[in-house]
Amino acid sequence: MRSVRARAALGATLVVAVALAAAGLAVLLVLRGNLTDRAGLEAEVTAREVAGELALGATYAELDLDDDDHPVQVTDEEGRVVAVSKDLEAISGTGTAGVVRVSPAPAPGPGDDDDEDDGSDPPRSEVSSDSPDFTNGTATIDGEKADYRFAAVEVTTKEDVTLTVHAGAPLAAEQEAVNTVRTSMLTGLPVMLLVVAGVTWLVTRRALRPVEGIRRELAAITASEDLGRRVPEPDSRDEIARLARTTNETLTVLQASVDRQRRFVADASHELRSPIASLRTQLEVGAAHPELLDLPGAVTDTVRLQVLAADLLLLARLDAGERPGRTAVDLGALVREEVSQRTADRIAPQVSVADGPLEVAGSRGQLARVVGNLLDNAERHAERSVAVTVRAERDEVLVEVTDDGPGVPEAEQDRIFERFVRLDDARSRDDGGAGLGLAIARDVAARHGGTLTVGTAPSGGARFTLRLPLPGRERP
Questions:
Q1: What is the CATH number of domain 227-322?
Q2: pLDDT grade, residue 391 (50/70/90)?
Q3: What gap in Å lies between CA 401 and CA 342, rounded to an integer?
Q4: What is the distance between the alpha carbons of residues 473 and 448, in angstroms, rounded to a whole number?
Q5: Residue 109, pLDDT score
Q6: Which residues contact 229 (CB under 8 A, 6 or more apart)?
Q7: Domain 324-469 in CATH: superfamily?
Q8: Which residue in 60, 84, 230, 412 is deepest, having the highest Cβ count within 10 Å?
Q9: Which of 434, 420, 430 is nearest to 262 (CA)?
């Protein structure tokens, strides 16, 4: 069953069916119990009436046992039947199946030893006040057999004889009522389940209609590959509306990612075209005229291609979600090492490393790339000085790189971290770089749980601040 509507309708129908069955069974049990208790009360009233007559001294022949709806059987202590309704032909459920009266033993006469006056009080007749015993059984009256609820009441006569009066009340009304209710339930249950299934189907269909619209639009987007389209958003505030909004947000992010990837590929192709074309020209000239081969220029273009290829490879790994290692890296020693290798730079950076814990967890190679990119950028724009400061601040290690160049306009301080963005487009590509250094630096900082920002140095130039958390203090 692949349809959500069908599964919802079936599930709701099953739940309602179980609930109605349980409720119906409970109603039947309560109804049967109440009617049975009522029949027992009728039987108890009849039994106590007969027991009252016996307690008042009525003989067995004087008992009023003509009620055909309430059969009566009176037994003595030995279980012998001493009185019975006249039309009772058979009985069960009272403990004694006899329906024929047995003559009781004669009462003691005045001259018997047992009747001698011994000075004791005469026997007192009474009806037991205890709750009667109830049983279910059958009785046949005038050839008709029926079910009855019997009540047994004990009575002590004036002759100190203990008798048990069994009186019954018919259960026909109880059985008829229970059967009527059961039939009504069995008849109405299928109708009720059909109504529940139909209503659930219609309600679910209406509720899922926006989902079908979302599905169709996504299928159209997939077929057309047009990420500029959006799925319809319902006016409601339910889960489906939130699903539509989340889907559109996902499409927006996906579109931005695809656009960024396309720009990246286009910009990378554009950046690669220039050194490749230059290198090819030099090689072709060298092949035709060896004496004119510009070997240093060819080497420079080759190095530029190598650097650009390495940058593109690193960006691809970062975009793929590559996580840096967890090696302990001393940023103070790393900065000193990077500066010591830059002997041929136009401006020698001034390094200041503070005391204290300066170790962070991460990839030494990637962090060295960040420091190197910041130094390259500072040297490119500085006029006379470049300074690097490393210090600890609360739970972070800060690396600040400043220069005395023109600085970065405030409106451009976020844009310079975008890929292939250069604020010095008037310069040659060879001097200005490909515009990937700062983008790589910020991505690496983010992968290490840190940040890279730019501001204005006291000298008016640019100040780049790299913040990396100390081990164990990384952001969640």
A1: 1.10.287.130
A2: very high
A3: 15
A4: 11
A5: 41
A6: 217, 220, 221, 251
A7: Histidine kinase-like ATPase, C-terminal domain (3.30.565.10)
A8: 84
A9: 420
